[in-house]
Design a protein that fits this description.
With about 140 residues, this protein is mainly alpha-helical. Helices cover about 65% and strands about 0% of the residues.
Length: about 140
């Protein structure tokens, strides 16, 4: 189980680093990570603070799983830990399901650059995070 926890923590840590890079003005992968409509116009226009907030959340999730592995001890109440085991996979499950138009498994707009990245990378990664998170929660 510790291997699964470490894999999930590493994935979340790397995702947080990507978001921190965007928050400081980096552009690597930024365009490919934003949904667009059929005309190629962005649907979301996140600000740097948005990337920072998401990065902090992902980093917190990574620390949470490291805490579960006993490799890192955090002062978190057991009740919060119990709920986080289910909340984190739920967040990524909602992302994997998507908005039924531009994002996720059931999106209708698939032939954009983001649509292809979402189909082949982003949504499958979310599903992997969900599966690993549920394995850990059980």
């Amino acid at each position: 189980m510790i291997i699964i926890i470490l894999i999930l923590a590493i994935i979340l840590f790397i995702l947080s680093l990507i978001h921190f890079n965007w928050a400081r003005g980096g552009i690597w992968g930024f365009e490919n990570a934003l949904p667009t409509n059929e005309k190629g116009e962005r649907i979301l226009n996140p600000r740097k603070i948005d990337s920072l907030i998401v990065g902090l959340g992902l980093l917190g999730f990574a620390f949470f799983y490291l805490h579960l592995s006993s490799l890192l001890t955090l002062a978190i109440f057991e009740l919060i830990m119990h709920y986080l085991k289910w909340i984190i996979p739920s967040i990524f499950m909602l992302r994997a399901i998507g908005d039924f138009r531009y994002v996720g498994l059931f999106k209708k707009v698939k032939n954009t650059k983001f649509g292809r990245f979402d189909t082949y990378y982003f949504t499958p990664l979310c599903i992997i995070i969900v599966m690993l998170g549920l394995l850990i929660a059980y």
